[in-house]
Amino acid sequence: MRSYTEGDKDKGRAIWRSASPPPALTAVESLQRRALRLTDNYELERHDRALDELVAHLDRTSPAQFQTRSALANAAKVIRSRRRIAPTISLESKAMALVHHDEFCRVDLAQWVETSASLSFGDRSTRVALIDGHDAVSLAAERRTVVPRTRESISRARRAGREAYRAEAVATS
Fold first, then answer.
1. What is the pLDDT of residue 83?
2. How far apart are the first and last CA of the chain?
3. Which residues have CB under 8 Å from 124's CB, separation 6+?
4. What predicted TM-score, i.e. pTM, was given to this entire model?
């Protein structure tokens, strides 16, 4: 393998010589090959931190296997320390999953309501207000109508939405 050495500074050229690569470069190459086969996030992060450490200290002369093992151990210590300071929480908890799922459903429904040609302007505005969290009382106050009339328009908008969704779902399948 050819390695780069600083040479003739006066002439501005570098000298290439044929020799075995420094142990630090061998350790970096070894770790990169190992990292390509990984799929676990913890191991990927550990290898990434170890590579950062090896690249920062390319002048080390200890054997490549020792450098690799040492860099991986140091990376594991850093990650363990970080997890102790700021523990990770699971986003798979049922409450979080429901909140996220509910938000995604709300966004999908709002997008469908806004783009559906089957809904009238009144039905569309009522559906958007319901998606935004309004209820009959707040809609009645906003629109300056009585609550029973607002409940009736909500019921009609929901029925129109169901029918439009059925028609569009049948048309697309």
1. 84
2. 61
3. 113, 114, 116
4. 0.43
